[in-house]
Amino acid sequence: MTSSIFGSLFSIFDSRxxxxxxxxxxxxxxxxxxxxxxxxxxxxxxxxxxxGDSSRMSQLITLVSQAPTNINVSDVAGAVTDPTHxxxxxxxxxxxxxxxxxxxxxxxxxxxxxxxxxxxxxxxxVVSTLxxxxxxxxxxxxxxxxxxxxxxxxxxxxxxxxxxEGIKELLPAGVSNLLAAAPVPAATASxxxxxxxxxxxxxxxxxxxxxxxxxxxxxxxxxxxxWAYRALYPVLPDSPDFTRxxxxxxxxxxxxxxxxxxxxxxxxxxxxxxxxxxEPAVWFDFDRxxxxxxxxxxxxxxxxxxxxxxxxxxxxxxxxxxxxxxxDNSGDAQHNLTLSQDRADGIIAxxxxxxxxxxxxxxxxxxxxxxxxDNSTEEGRAQNRRVSMRVTQK
Length: 394
Fold this sequence. Notes:
It is a single chain. The protein is of the alpha+beta class. It has 2 domains: 4-229, no CATH class; 252-393, CATH 3.30.1330.60. It is 51% helix and 9% strand. It is built from 16 helices and 6 strands. The strands form 2 sheets. Strands 3-6-4-5 form a 4-stranded mixed β-sheet. A hairpin with a 3-residue loop joins strand 1 and strand 2 (254-259). The chain is globular, with a radius of gyration of 22 Å.
């Protein structure tokens, strides 16, 4: 990804959340991950393709102004999969989301869904469902930025156009041409022709920088839904894809080359996002640490990720982290607790050896507590044997 902003969009993506939605749809985790990237990039780019049309931007502002300031993501997820049990308010919001998709894609919506599906190896119906969940949540996010920054059709178009430049590479083949040619059906435009208040910013003004948070919000919205499924669907054992790397520039002009879907990207995005405070429930799983069996001894392959984490902590000296060690439920519980503590302590020791002050670090071994997968299967036990970190100070 060429855009540093877009690079933070998937900060809360992890293998477990993607696995939940993949399991629900009966698709592979890699396909769902790619489909999410492509789908959201298409939606954002579709709206940006209307940026030069003040009438379309006015329609967008009017449409999103009808969205609630916050919504229950579980209700949206449930309504998408089972509309018979959805409330009338949620169904109304989903209907507005369909109008957003129509505004973004026009008469080419089916072709764009098909292109995303072919690119990611997903059925069009799956892509449609993913976009159906993302669209109403995107409306809520847009409603907030339009209200708080007093956005006009011009300034909103400028925002969308600017951010879309960095994600062109994620669009499936042929989608750019489809978006450029996509007409907006009259049925979509007619219900939203009310005049739009221009607020306090002149038409020629540039949007304020306070909307930079919007893009991460927009693009990670589908993932929020995945967390709603977490308690309902089993986790798949697939490993994250570490074949694609991205560069991240840190304070001090230090550049890290790290896996696009790796924990380093997610940790960085959390640290760099000023709207994210310390959250006790937000943990980031190391995904390239290897220990010897039943031992706290790290294998050499773990060194690269630990060096990356140390580099990030050096770039952000105010950040403190808590390391948590976990095991599966095999064997003696007290032995597992001791092993998990030893592994967490070992990570602390290595980070200290890499130059991080010990007063910024703490470690707890949780043993077999807090499993994230089914301990009755080998795949589940493998996922429960993990080391995680949590930011305790920013």
